[in-house]
Amino acid sequence: MAVDRHVPPSVLKLQPYQAGKTVEQIGREIGVEVTVKLSSNENPLGSSPAALRALAAPQDYAPHLYPDAAAVALRAAIAKKLNLEPEQVICGNGSNDILEMAATLTLRPGSKAVYAQHSFVVYRLATFARGAEAIEVPAANFGHDLDAMAEACQQDGVRIVYVANPNNPTGSWHEPEAVAAFVAKIPEDVLVVLDEAYHEYVEDGPGPTLALLAKHPNLLISRTFSKIHGLAGLRIGYGLAQPGLLALLNRVRQPFNANSAAQAAAAAALADDDFIARSKDANRAGMTQLQEGLAAKGYPTIPSCGNFICFASGDGAAMFMTLLRGGVVIRNIDEYGLANWLRATVGTEENNAQLLAALPART
Questions:
Q1: Which residue has the higher pLDDT, 314 or 307?
Q2: What domains can you pick out in the chain, each with its CATH number?
Q3: Confidence grade of residue 62 (pLDDT, cut at 50, 70, 90)
Q4: What is the pLDDT of residues 20-52, one digit of tens each?
């Protein structure tokens, strides 16, 4: 194909993002009926009932019309919930859209992005897709070494730093005081992206990260409705920052990037406190079930503040296939540099038990 002659080398060396497959896809590929899917960190309780009711009232979002490009109602709902101003909120096609906007705004050939080893693979994809250089800082205890990352941000050419808190896929988390100290060390001309896709699952709350927005005009916080709200299929997320930064992001935001149904469902889900509480309770119980069950079978785990847990599995690829042939699909995280580990979403009590039953005891 002649077109590839003009594709940047940084793009040619990229591998596409390996998204979790559907149960039907997996079943067709391996000829086994998959009964348990714990690979994509989806909410095992399903979607917010309030969101489902909103989706059942299409007159409220007019599917035949283009969506509100500025997501005015949803931004107002988010701002009210978080005690911010609507001008501090931007919506996107999932929180990935926010991460991509940040990369588009800051990165170009010759610039640099900083992120941690074993952190969300989209940071790397977004960096190389724009021909920029990646500075991958070695992990500390499977999490971010914030001091080393802050030091890396002092290098010439660094334009953005990504921090996932909690981190995907390892589940590690930094206390708010550590995050605040980190942000304070970053040069003012470096964009700090604090990825809080799983922040609702942190038992003691995500901490006062929102208070940092007033102090740091270079801070962008990204969040999603895909996890605790159960709206992964609608692809809706949002970013929080000072109005000046969001005005710049809006220059690179795709038109109509948050669809009408997603906006309506997200606004309803945001107010569904009962579903959020039930989801947290289920995650707490399921995490305990998996931690204790994995320990009983001899599998070391990484302490997690998300809705997933990583465990040492020996040969991760081989164990992944063993479970798959038994109808249980979790996540192989070899692409994160964790070839001897697997990641499992916290599921229902029954699904967690099925995973544990399928795992052979380690000797």
A1: 307
A2: 2-46+274-358 (3.90.1150.10), 49-272 (3.40.640.10)
A3: confident
A4: 656 566 666 666 667 799 999 999 999 999 999
Tell me whether strands 158-164 and 112-116 are parallel, antiparallel or unpaired.
parallel
Beta carbons of 327 and 32 less than 8 angstroms apart: yes
β-strands 219-224, 237-240 pairing: antiparallel
Model pTM? 0.93
Look-up of token digits 């009926």: 33
Please state, as a whole number, how many other Cβ atoms lie within 10 Å of the Cβ of residue 176.
17
Structure tokens at 329: 């699909």
Amino acid residing at 339: A
Tokens of 166: 């909690």
Amino acid occupying residue 280: K
Token representation of residue 111: 């610039």
Amino acid in position 124: R
pLDDT 10s digits, 193-209: 999 999 999 986 556 78
CA 306 – CA 294 distance, rounded (Å): 17
CB 89 within 8 A of CB 240: yes
Residue 140 pairs in a beta bridge with 143
Please check the confidence at residue 339 and state whether its pLDDT lies above 60.
yes
Contact (Cβ atoms closer than 8 angstroms) between residue 148 and residue 178: no
d(CA 88, CA 81): 12
Checking DSSP bridges between strand 36-37 and strand 328-329, what pairing results, if any? parallel
Cβ atoms within 10 Å, residue 204: 9
With 0-12 / 13-18 / 19 or more C-beta atoms within 10 angstroms meaning exposed / middle / buried, residue 49 is middle
Residue among 341, 246, 360 nearest 293 (CA): 360
How far apart are the C-alpha atoms of 58 and 53, rounded to whole Å?
10
